[in-house]
Amino acid sequence: MRLVGKFLIVALLLPPGAWARASDLNDYPTAARADYVFGCMKANGDTRLSLDQCSCSIDVIATILPYERYVTAETVASVNQQAGQVGALMRNTDAARDALQDLRRAQAEAQVRCF
To answer: pLDDT, tens digit, for every residue of 36-55?
Structure first.
């Protein structure tokens, strides 16, 4: 009972907004998460273990990258695979490289935590 009382006191002393809203922590649409998990599972063997690891992975990525940044980076990654001028244009812009680098860092962190 004392622990609960201490927790309530600390909670009341926090300034408004100190508690993160669930929507701030979960801005990835369910379909985007599912798409990531399906692709990840396909690459990792379609097992129950890969389901757990891939679900963990997108959760970690979501804590690191806002959804808009994730979409940008995924778009860059997709376009980078194209040959020709479009792919070259994307590969040669700082913004595209930065977005892709952010995604790669988030994926590396997810790899460490989940696999």
So the answer is: 999 999 999 999 999 999 99
